Amino acid sequence: MVTAPHAQTASAPDASRTFPEDFLWGTATAAYQIEGAAAEDGRTPSIWDTYARTPGRVRNGDTGDIATDHYHRWREDVALMADLGVGAYRFSLAWPRIQPTGRGPAVQKGLDFYRRLVDELLEKGIQPVATLYHWDLPQELEDAGGWPERATAERFAAYAALAADALGDRVKTWTTLNEPWCSAFLGYGSGAHAPGRTDPVAALRAAHHLNLAHGLAVQALRDRIPADARCSVTLNIHHVRPLTGSDADTDAARRIDALANRVFTGPMLRGAYPDDLFEDTAALTDWHYVQDGDLELINQPLDFLGVNYYSPTLVSRAEDGGSHTSDGHGGSTRSPWPAADRVAFHQPPGDTTAMGWAVDPSGLYDLLRRLSSDFPELPLVITENGAAFDDYADPAGHVNDTARIAYLHGHLAAVHRARTDGVDVRGYFLWSLLDNFEWAHGYSKRFGLVYVDYPTGTRIPKASARWYAEVARTGVLRDA
Predict the structure, then answer these.
(1) Architecture of domain 16-478
(2) 14 — pLDDT class (breaks 50, 70, 90)
(3) What are phi and psi of 334, to 5 degrees?
(4) From the candidates 35, 142, 149, 384, which is the catalytic residue?
(5) Name one GO molecular function term (predicted).
């Protein structure tokens, strides 16, 4: 979202901040990042299996073949959540574990894993929040063209129906897609994510078919889940700030806002693509793949919008017309931004995490205010927020991650301030429960509340886990 440059929105200096009793506290993971068991019980390769096994794609040649072995240690991980006292767990279903080729009947062993997981969560009083897609497209569907092809959206709707038929009596909250921007523009534009393609037109086609997949999946879910169940989508809305107040920098921010945000919020939440997106990309594509009736299919009623936020995006006009990709989405020399070669990305000021991302809670506050203004009828849930730091276990087996606690405190204070100012934010899911496979970074970046010793799989709750457990238990955010 576009705001004035360097907005200053520090939180009020309250001694403590209290959240309502019904505020939902949770934590989140994704299937490929934690499950492992890559070839067990009928699971076949996803695009991330293929990508990770391609030399040079992932740091240190790491793969998700074992990850944190959650497939075998799920009961232990649910016990960790119960100890945290969180009210909900956001996890993703692995499409190639449930429907290995992306076609045909479900594999019952795959569904049984999620049935057991959900039953255990419910027994512990933890709400299961299921995400249908967190980037692990069955490789067979990519071989047939992947997300740039309309058929993939149709296959996704059939997969959603299988999942709803199996779990709809247990799971009351569903998310269709996680961060479709990453799937489309990092996967097919920059090549920094699987499947590693570098075609700007394919990225735009993928964005449309992900939108269509979302709408078709919501329809499939609504046909099968109880009337009181909820449907949502999770978007990594970029909080875009212009470097200066100049017209050129403001237009650069507008252009990135269209490619990062309104390409999804327009059709999903308003039933139309923004005109400026079509104008900006006209030299690349005529958008002929947007067929009659697609926008009505995409624009399905939702119960809330999932918002992922880590850091703001700072841009300016690039006078040299070169390719500028210093935007926190590295791994390729190709830009993930079609038709935006004259936009430069800048490092926001201030402290950074181990990912090199700026620590800026004001961006979350400003983003929530903007979303509330643009979509006042739609409740918001923070579905991911967290930070990677260079955590280590000391000789006594303690992980004292004070920097993460400070990060979380600042961002939760921003959420509280937004609520105080009238924004309907109903929950917060911390990313992540466990240290895990961090995509192209492999196992080099640690986001977890729980430290994982990868050679042994041993779990060690960090200091931040104890801190977050207290916030979730009391609903009170106390100043240090």
Answers:
(1) Alpha-Beta Barrel (3.20)
(2) low
(3) -85, 145
(4) 384
(5) beta-glucosidase activity
